[in-house]
# Entry
Amino acid sequence: VQLTHILATTALAMTLTVNAQTMPPSGVGNAAQLSSSTAVRQSDGEVRKMNKEQGKMTLKHGPIANLEMPGMTMVFKVSDPKMLDSIKEGDKVKFAASKVNGAITVTSIEAVK
Ligand SMILES: [Cu+2]
# Structure
């Protein structure tokens, strides 16, 4: 009886392992969940400098809740230098920033009228 039980348990464990390995479809769902749960709130800022070649910009920014950062002036990376085309130095902006590969990166930005 015990042996049967062990075999049944092993079979179950193997089934679970196979399920875990065939998870990519639901893994995609997890990724979507992750990105929505880390949805970045927008912060206020003012453009001080832009460097499109280096994909960087200096922002004087208000508190960034999702980064637990108080207001300051600092350099950010930008996830896409094309974002800098729609703004110019001196613009008041709303932007979203998050840590990407350890670097604080502006992931979206728009000028505020
Ligand atoms: Cu900062």
